[in-house]
């Protein structure tokens, strides 16, 4: 009997050592993945490596006795599984950051629209309709779209050309034409014109064609170290689906970050601010309209307004906004007022538990407030605060996979992956507390003609000189220079 026990002992140990070997391989791979992610400080990697090695030695010692050996085997398997899961999460984060920091080619989306109550559902349903197009709005892409649609249908479209977008819209509403072909970015602009509010709600998209925007992007050298100060433009565009479409920017926030003093300024500029940018040739336009010419135009408008250089941008669209909040399990947002967004939610003064769609409606609403766009800008800041707080809680871990999927699909930044990793590593190294302040630029409401919609009086906000000057002072204060003019020179380095 004793001989059998002695012969069985090496077999049990071999099984135990096999588990240890599997654990050791899984632990080694996890360390390699963490090194490749390049976000963990060296001291954390050393601690992780030492702990995993000590556990391996402990499991080997536990094999000397039958009872402890069994316990060691179970723990070995559990920790091996944990290491494999850790590899998955690290790889998921690395993949997500790569996707977010890989900027897509911007696109112009031209769509076919019918009235909401039209029976047509797909392109073939409108093949025999009379189509309307405009002669002076994105004509090149409109012609390309017509050509592609005709190729798909295998027939010529019946087209009426209009000099005025509004005449075309009137005839669509009256039934003179059955459908229109138009750059989707201008649908929202038309809906801002008095008497044409119906355009934002009563049109329905049948199909769309995306056209890549060809631009020359200069090769930029990636800084090796985390910049002491930088400015990032946070843009929320009013589209659903992919992030590449050029569209109006409803959210325009500058994040001025000083990594040395741990100060962040969130500077919100109302979407209706009356500004100029390179494309306009000196003419004025709404800040939100700059987005239809690309994210560079939006940054250019803000750079001119505040006399700065913007280093990076982060764009998110409506889809990403909704998905990230839903993935986090909703957010708690504070409202200054009681108000209702029709068909969405009744909001009450105080904290409101909101899902993604409700948070989007909260951030976009302006007509319920006497302060209009200024209150909307404040509410947008509140939503950002709520998202940051929720992401800093255990909700990020419990909903990790869905959060990463939401971020990867609808966020985009030109900040290089190396810089993102360096910022995370810096934060993990010092675990510093950041001081976040916010400011919204003020102005006077009026109506004026805009570059993107000539001949129409649109609601705009004339920048208040004192408010803009205060914004410049705050930028300089956080950026770390007493002379505001230096912000442009230093941030561009």
What do these coordinates show?
- The chain has about 500 residues and is α+β, with helices and mostly antiparallel strands.
- The protein has a 6-stranded mixed sheet, with helices on both faces. The chain has a 5-stranded mixed sheet with strand order 3-2-4-1-5, sandwiched between helices.
- The model is unreliable at about 1-5 (pLDDT under 50).
- The chain folds into 3 domains: about 1-90; about 105-210, D-Maltodextrin-Binding Protein, domain 2; about 230-490, LCP protein (Aminopeptidase, 3-Layer(aba) Sandwich).
- It has helices spanning about 1-35, 40-60, 65-100, 140-155, 165-175, 185-190, 200, 295-305, 320-325, 355-365, 375-390, 395-400, 400-410, 415-430, 465-480, 485-490; strands spanning about 105-115, 130-135, 160, 180-185, 205-210, 230-235, 250-260, 265-270, 275, 285, 310-315, 330-335, 340, 345, 350-355, 410-415, 435-440, 445-450, 455-465.
- The chain has 16 helices and 19 strands.
- It is globular and about 90 Å long.
Q: Which descriptors apply to this entry?
A:
alpha+beta, disordered N terminus, 19 strands, 3 domains, 493 residues, globular, D-Maltodextrin-Binding Protein, domain 2, Aminopeptidase
Distance between the termini: 80 Å
Please tally the helical runs, counting DSSP H or I stretches of 4 or more residues: 16
Q: Could you say which structural class the secondary elements and strand pairing correspond to?
A: alpha+beta
For the largest beta-sheet, the strand count, sense and barrel status come to: 6 strands, mixed
